[in-house]
Amino acid sequence: MSKVRVLIVDDEALSRQRIRRLVQGEADAEVIGECENGVDAVAAIRAQRPDVVCLDVQMPELDGFGVLQQLGDGPSPKVLFVTAYDDHALRAFDVHAVDYVLKPVDADRFRTAFDRARRAHLQSIAAGRLDELLDTVRRVTDGAPAPGNDFSTSAAASSAAAGAAPSFQSTASFGTGHAGDNAAAGSGYSESRYASRILVKHDGRMFFVKVNEIDWIEADRNYVKLHVGNAAHTIRERISHIEETLDPASFARIHRSTIVNLNRVREMQQWFSGDYVVILDNGTRLRLSRFYRERVERQVGVV
User: Fold this and answer.
1) Residue 205, pLDDT above cutoff 60
2) Residue 31 DSSP label
3) How far is the C-alpha of 20 from the C-alpha of 35, rounded, in Å?
4) pLDDT for position 171
5) Do 160 and 259 reside in the same domain of the chain?
6) Where residue 80 sits, what CATH number does that domain have?
7) What is the CATH number of the domain that holds 271?
8) 104 preceded by cis ω (within 30°)?
9) 26: CB partners within 8 A, 6+ apart
10) Is the overall model pTM greater than 0.70, yes or no?
11) Residues 159-183: pLDDT tens digits?
12) Residue 39 placed within a domain
């Protein structure tokens, strides 16, 4: 099994040495480089594509949050923040850091945090290994069986005969209806613009989640979590793409990292600085930012 590749970013030499020793104490990890400022960190992350970055928050010129902002939609390693101030914790989670460790770095606390980063990295690998299988599924359901795959051909034929083959968007695992919905057009697949179900892959199996059963959706870097009752299903997709596939009559983007099922909203309460708190039927409280407020009001017919 390949080792977890770690980049250390900190403007303090002693702190870098401490973190290096702790990483070297992990049998399945290796340090691939060190940076003493944010500018070099951005270049190193883009060039070396580490699996995990131990990232200092406070650095001259470009701090840890600035590093992630510079990366944008580029390489997205698992980030373990290292900070001297506990008040950075909430912001660290807001940018989807795996965990954070306070200076001076405690060995046991670091191991716990690094273990989370390792598990997050391994989960990403597992998800990626299913991509080829999902590509095959998409080709089959679109009527184009994978070359040399007799099973795909027979599966497509069986599904068509059963009249229940789900259709998929070309770039994501979304079902948009059932066969027979567009019989007048002579097609076996629905031409509906919006998704009716979403394909989830977990522990080597795949299943569909009905869109109308989703309470809310949460962004997690290159992933999203579908919250359905007490369950949460993670899929490899960007929230902006999810938003495009959902019916705006039922779903609204209320924050850069949150989409809500409007049918689950019980009430909205005014908060600070033009923001609102959205309360769902199950008691979940979500933030409606002022940036999205006018658009949500138009969707629900307030303005």
Assistant:
1) yes
2) E
3) 12
4) 33
5) no
6) 3.40.50.2300
7) 2.40.50.1020
8) yes
9) 4, 111, 114, 118
10) no
11) 333 333 333 333 334 444 433 333 3
12) yes
